[in-house]
């Protein structure tokens, strides 16, 4: 087994580097986009996110800086909110995935609600 130590990793092609096993089969890849977003849509930190728009309470549109190759990607998102009781419910969901971005809604089971959130995009 060998270890690669480098300050930078650069793909020889136009895409992101892929991780492959000794047979050349892809076994992983880097995130295509991620973001840490405040409740008002302000981007605290990100990779490949050009904008986040708060359309109305709890309803956001996320746009990528560089388009993905297809809309076949997965989004993992979580709400940044302390839950202080066992009966509290907080939902977050993404939809309208396109190569240029996606929509995200969050609610508290009774109404749409704006909270900070984080997300990671994998695939495409």
Describe the 3D structure.
The chain has 124 residues and is an all-beta fold. It has a single domain (31-123), classed as Sandwich (Immunoglobulin-like). It contains no helices and 10 strands. The protein starts with 17 loop residues before the first strand and ends with a strand.
- CATH topology, by name, is Immunoglobulin-like
Helical segment tally? 0
Shape: elongated
Q: Main β-sheet, in a few words?
A: 4 strands, antiparallel
- The mean pLDDT is 90
- What's the helical proportion of residues? under 10%
What would you report as the Rg, rounded to the nearest angstrom?
17 Å
Give the structural class.
mainly beta
Note the gap between the termini. Answer: 30 Å
> In percent terms, what proportion of residues is strand?
over 45%
List SSEs in N-to-C order.
Answer: EEEEEEEEEE
Question: Count the strands?
Answer: 10
Top CATH class: Mainly Beta
Q: Which architecture would the CATH scheme give at its second level?
A: Sandwich
Low-confidence stretches are none
How do the strands of the widest beta sheet line up side by side?
4-3-10-7
Q: Structurally, how many domains make up the residues?
A: 1
